[in-house]
């Protein structure tokens, strides 16, 4: 049985339907990334799963509990970092940590978190006077203070410089080793590729792709095979290979696009004819490519109002 089980989740805000039937199962210890364009429903989905918003329909179970109206038992298991850290402007860093510690039976020591999230010098600083990156680090620290079994992290490294981002990644790696289950909302494909066992791509309130980051990367974009052009290249023959979608010649290079089998088929065809593929380069699709191609395919323009 999955630790998090969601089925048929729907949610509208007024007339606007934001989630249109989400099914998701997350196993204990898994790190799942929720990706999607702005406004695709990621935060709404995660906050419904965490019990902060009430869905219109569907079932949600987190460690066997319904998060709506969840009691203390479930609250102890969950850690939530929200997209906008909702803290009072004048609260000091040390006070916020002490306050959140008081919610849990076995909180992480505040000193450990101040150290880990590079906030030791800011313990007396009010929230409003922290930099964007410091506010962000504090919100991640607060999400993890109760040693959660399930952590929801929404855009956890947005606004952080590359070194702070890497520091947070390495901390999450430690939590992964402790078996913490995590749902991450992120716009950074590199982050998803680095941290996630599985990614889910949302578009317009539906899941349009799901799988290991490499699998999803391979499914959305195309392979590119390029090599130096010469007069003997059988362009028409290459174009007719089953996995090839297009062949072009630019700046003295032959450029072939196609599916997973395309590199193998192109190389075999060239070898059969005894033509060397000079300065051969094969570029496999990245998660970025797949994200763009999948979400653009799925994007439906809103219907234009009928003319009177
Ligand atoms: N409380 C709310 N009331 C009304 N509409 C809302 C509310 N919260 C979100 N929305 C709308 O629902 C849609 C989905 O929002 P949501 O924040 O879930 O998307 P998201 O994928 O997390 O977006 P982003 O990447 O921009 O953070 C958006 O059009 C947003 O304006």
From TrEMBL:
Keywords: Antibiotic resistance, ATP-binding, Nucleotide-binding, Transport. GO terms for biological process: response to antibiotic. Gene3D superfamilies: P-loop containing nucleotide triphosphate hydrolases. GO terms for cellular component: plasma membrane. Residues 4-229 form the ABC transporter domain. Its main location: membrane. This is ABC-2 type transport system ATP-binding protein.
């Amino acid at each position: 049985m999955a630790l998090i089980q969601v089925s048929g989740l729907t949610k509208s805000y007024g007339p606007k339907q934001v989630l249109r039937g989400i099914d998701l199962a997350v196993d204990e210890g898994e790190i799942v990334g929720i990706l999607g364009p702005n406004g695709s429903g990621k935060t709404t989905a995660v906050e419904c799963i965490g019990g902060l918003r009430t869905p219109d329909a569907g079932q949600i179970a987190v460690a066997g509990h319904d998060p709506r109206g969840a009691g203390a038992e479930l609250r102890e298991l969950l850690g939530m970092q929200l997209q906008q850290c909702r803290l009072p402007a004048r609260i000091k860093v040390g006070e916020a940590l002490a306050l959140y510690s008081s919610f849990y039976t076995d909180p992480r020591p505040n000193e450990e978190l101040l150290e880990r999230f590079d906030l030791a010098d800011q313990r007396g600083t009010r929230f409003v006077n922290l930099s964007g990156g410091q506010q962000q680090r504090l919100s991640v620290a607060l999400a993890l203070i109760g040693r959660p079994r399930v952590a929801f992290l929404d855009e956890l490294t947005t606004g952080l410089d590359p070194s702070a981002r890497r520091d947070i990644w390495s901390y999450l790696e430690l939590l992964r080793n402790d078996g913490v289950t995590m749902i991450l909302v992120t716009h950074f494909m590199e982050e998803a590729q680095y941290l996630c066992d599985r990614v889910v791509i949302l578009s317009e309130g539906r899941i349009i792709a799901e799988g290991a980051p490499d699998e999803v990367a391979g499914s959305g974009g195309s392979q590119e095979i390029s090599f130096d052009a010469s007069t003997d290249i059988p362009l028409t023959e290459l174009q007719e290979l089953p996995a090839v979608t297009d062949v072009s010649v630019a700046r003295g290079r032959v450029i072939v696009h196609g599916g997973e089998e395309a590199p193998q088929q192109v190389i075999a065809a060239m070898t059969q004819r005894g033509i060397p593929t000079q300065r051969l380069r094969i570029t496999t699709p990245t998660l970025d490519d797949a994200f763009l191609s999948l979400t653009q395919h799925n994007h439906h323009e809103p219907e234009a109002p009928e003319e009177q």
